[in-house]
Amino acid sequence: MSPVVVVLLLFAGLSEAVGRILPLVARRPGMSRTFVAGLLLPGGLVEGAVFALWPLTAWTLADLVLSTPSETGLVWTPSLVAPLVLSAVLAFPLLGPLLHLLLLVGVGAGLVGPLAAATGLGWWGAAGCVAGAGAGLGAAVEAVRRLVVRISAAEAPEAMA
Questions:
Q1: Residue 39 clears pLDDT 80, i.e. is over it
Q2: pTM of the entire structure?
Q3: How does DSSP classify residue 29?
Q4: What DSSP line would sit under 38-86, residue for residue?
């Protein structure tokens, strides 16, 4: 992965984390800036890592569908990752989950062509692999988010006592 792609993925991840954390900050106006920054940096790294894993996971699913694994993998290129950065910047979850979902579907559709070409799957098969990978990664991240919230909510009363 080129350094440009890594920077773009980190920027998309940070933008996504800002969109997730801004509603929290809006509900709690007394949060310190250092605490918010402490949430943004790891959140941005996690989101960036999930974005980076999306093509690899889709390619792995495609290899599971095929009887013979393909030799080359699907990787992010600057032209593929640019719409992801745009969708992360324009469609914070604060602005609307439906718009955010539509833009991510558009980015996923951009991954379908290269995946189909790299694996030999048809367009619909590659689309299913990209969608399955995106949904699986999204569900995993959401489960971790809920677990962190549950653990931090359980620890908060103990800290006050």
A1: no
A2: 0.77
A3: T
A4: HHHHHHHHHHHHHHHHHHHHHHHHHHHHSSS--SSPP---HHHHHHHHH
